[in-house]
Amino acid sequence: xxxxxxxxxxxxxxxxxxxxxxxxxxxxxxxxxxxxxxxxxxxxxxxxxxxxxxxxxxxxxxxxxxxxxxxxxxxxxxxxxxxxxxxxxxxxxxxxxxxxxxxxxxxxxxxxxxxxxxxxxxxxxxxxxxxxxxxxxxxxxxxxxxxxxxxxxxxx
Length: 156
Known about the structure:
Oligomer: single chain
Helix content: 55-70%
Distance between the termini: 26 Å
Number of helices: 7
Structural class: mainly alpha
Number of strands: 3
Protein backbone atom coordinates (compact mmCIF):
# COMPACT_ATOMS: atom_id res chain seq x y z
CA UNK A 1 0.00 0.00 0.00
CA UNK A 2 1.18 3.55 -0.78
CA UNK A 3 2.74 5.20 2.30
CA UNK A 4 1.08 8.55 1.49
CA UNK A 5 -2.33 6.87 1.64
CA UNK A 6 -1.78 5.53 5.13
CA UNK A 7 -0.99 8.92 6.66
CA UNK A 8 -3.98 11.07 5.74
CA UNK A 9 -4.33 14.27 7.75
CA UNK A 10 -7.60 14.62 9.55
CA UNK A 11 -10.18 16.77 7.80
CA UNK A 12 -9.58 19.44 10.44
CA UNK A 13 -5.97 19.77 9.25
CA UNK A 14 -6.88 20.68 5.67
CA UNK A 15 -6.41 24.39 4.96
CA UNK A 16 -8.89 24.83 2.08
CA UNK A 17 -12.10 24.16 4.06
CA UNK A 18 -11.06 26.65 6.75
CA UNK A 19 -10.16 29.38 4.25
CA UNK A 20 -13.27 28.70 2.17
CA UNK A 21 -15.55 28.88 5.20
CA UNK A 22 -13.89 32.07 6.44
CA UNK A 23 -14.30 33.61 2.99
CA UNK A 24 -17.98 32.68 2.86
CA UNK A 25 -18.70 34.13 6.31
CA UNK A 26 -16.86 37.36 5.47
CA UNK A 27 -18.66 37.63 2.13
CA UNK A 28 -22.01 36.96 3.78
CA UNK A 29 -21.39 39.71 6.36
CA UNK A 30 -20.33 42.18 3.66
CA UNK A 31 -23.30 41.38 1.43
CA UNK A 32 -25.78 41.59 4.32
CA UNK A 33 -24.38 45.00 5.21
CA UNK A 34 -24.37 46.19 1.58
CA UNK A 35 -27.95 44.97 1.14
CA UNK A 36 -29.31 46.52 4.33
CA UNK A 37 -27.43 49.83 4.12
CA UNK A 38 -27.20 50.41 0.38
CA UNK A 39 -29.71 48.09 -1.31
CA UNK A 40 -27.03 46.15 -3.18
CA UNK A 41 -27.20 42.48 -4.13
CA UNK A 42 -24.17 40.22 -3.91
CA UNK A 43 -23.08 40.59 -7.54
CA UNK A 44 -23.66 44.36 -7.47
CA UNK A 45 -21.57 44.62 -4.31
CA UNK A 46 -18.82 42.53 -5.91
CA UNK A 47 -18.84 44.58 -9.13
CA UNK A 48 -18.68 47.87 -7.20
CA UNK A 49 -15.84 46.60 -5.05
CA UNK A 50 -13.84 45.38 -8.05
CA UNK A 51 -14.45 48.59 -9.99
CA UNK A 52 -12.89 50.51 -7.13
CA UNK A 53 -9.69 48.57 -7.77
CA UNK A 54 -9.63 47.89 -11.52
CA UNK A 55 -11.50 50.69 -13.28
CA UNK A 56 -11.76 51.40 -16.14
CA UNK A 57 -12.46 47.80 -17.04
CA UNK A 58 -14.42 45.80 -19.60
CA UNK A 59 -17.23 43.39 -18.74
CA UNK A 60 -14.96 40.54 -19.91
CA UNK A 61 -12.16 41.59 -17.53
CA UNK A 62 -14.62 42.24 -14.72
CA UNK A 63 -16.06 38.75 -15.22
CA UNK A 64 -12.57 37.28 -14.98
CA UNK A 65 -11.81 39.04 -11.68
CA UNK A 66 -15.25 38.33 -10.20
CA UNK A 67 -15.14 34.64 -11.17
CA UNK A 68 -18.78 34.98 -12.25
CA UNK A 69 -20.90 34.34 -15.32
CA UNK A 70 -20.77 37.22 -17.85
CA UNK A 71 -24.57 37.50 -17.84
CA UNK A 72 -24.60 38.01 -14.05
CA UNK A 73 -21.96 40.72 -14.28
CA UNK A 74 -23.71 42.40 -17.20
CA UNK A 75 -27.03 42.50 -15.31
CA UNK A 76 -25.32 43.93 -12.22
CA UNK A 77 -23.56 46.60 -14.30
CA UNK A 78 -26.89 47.53 -15.92
CA UNK A 79 -28.60 47.79 -12.52
CA UNK A 80 -25.76 49.89 -11.13
CA UNK A 81 -25.84 52.13 -14.22
CA UNK A 82 -29.60 52.66 -13.79
CA UNK A 83 -28.95 53.77 -10.20
CA UNK A 84 -26.21 56.16 -11.32
CA UNK A 85 -23.27 54.32 -9.74
CA UNK A 86 -21.44 53.26 -12.92
CA UNK A 87 -21.04 54.56 -16.43
CA UNK A 88 -20.19 52.83 -19.67
CA UNK A 89 -18.30 54.24 -22.60
CA UNK A 90 -16.80 52.75 -25.72
CA UNK A 91 -13.32 51.40 -25.09
CA UNK A 92 -10.46 53.24 -26.78
CA UNK A 93 -8.53 49.93 -26.88
CA UNK A 94 -11.29 47.81 -28.45
CA UNK A 95 -14.27 49.54 -30.01
CA UNK A 96 -16.33 46.34 -29.63
CA UNK A 97 -16.16 46.59 -25.85
CA UNK A 98 -17.38 49.10 -23.31
CA UNK A 99 -15.29 50.36 -20.43
CA UNK A 100 -17.03 50.48 -17.07
CA UNK A 101 -16.14 53.13 -14.48
CA UNK A 102 -17.57 54.39 -11.23
CA UNK A 103 -19.44 57.69 -11.32
CA UNK A 104 -19.04 60.28 -8.54
CA UNK A 105 -21.94 58.58 -6.72
CA UNK A 106 -20.29 55.21 -7.32
CA UNK A 107 -16.98 56.45 -5.91
CA UNK A 108 -18.80 57.72 -2.83
CA UNK A 109 -20.57 54.38 -2.38
CA UNK A 110 -17.28 52.53 -2.87
CA UNK A 111 -15.75 54.68 -0.11
CA UNK A 112 -18.67 53.77 2.19
CA UNK A 113 -18.24 50.07 1.38
CA UNK A 114 -14.50 50.36 2.10
CA UNK A 115 -15.14 52.00 5.47
CA UNK A 116 -17.57 49.18 6.32
CA UNK A 117 -14.92 46.60 5.30
CA UNK A 118 -12.35 48.28 7.54
CA UNK A 119 -14.82 48.15 10.44
CA UNK A 120 -15.43 44.42 9.87
CA UNK A 121 -11.66 43.88 9.65
CA UNK A 122 -11.14 45.59 13.02
CA UNK A 123 -13.74 43.31 14.62
CA UNK A 124 -12.19 40.23 13.00
CA UNK A 125 -8.68 41.05 14.22
CA UNK A 126 -9.64 42.33 17.66
CA UNK A 127 -7.29 41.00 20.33
CA UNK A 128 -4.43 40.20 17.95
CA UNK A 129 -1.14 42.07 18.36
CA UNK A 130 0.44 43.95 15.47
CA UNK A 131 3.08 41.22 15.16
CA UNK A 132 0.40 38.50 15.06
CA UNK A 133 -1.53 40.38 12.37
CA UNK A 134 1.60 40.87 10.24
CA UNK A 135 2.47 37.17 10.65
CA UNK A 136 -1.07 36.17 9.69
CA UNK A 137 -1.05 38.38 6.59
CA UNK A 138 2.38 37.07 5.64
CA UNK A 139 1.20 33.48 6.00
CA UNK A 140 -1.95 34.18 3.97
CA UNK A 141 0.12 35.84 1.23
CA UNK A 142 2.39 32.80 1.07
CA UNK A 143 -0.62 30.47 0.90
CA UNK A 144 -2.14 32.62 -1.86
CA UNK A 145 1.04 32.38 -3.92
CA UNK A 146 1.21 28.61 -3.45
CA UNK A 147 -2.48 28.18 -4.28
CA UNK A 148 -2.01 30.32 -7.39
CA UNK A 149 0.85 28.04 -8.41
CA UNK A 150 -1.33 24.98 -7.89
CA UNK A 151 -4.13 26.48 -9.98
CA UNK A 152 -1.66 27.27 -12.77
CA UNK A 153 -0.28 23.72 -12.73
CA UNK A 154 2.93 24.53 -10.83
CA UNK A 155 3.48 22.34 -7.81
CA UNK A 156 6.53 24.25 -6.55
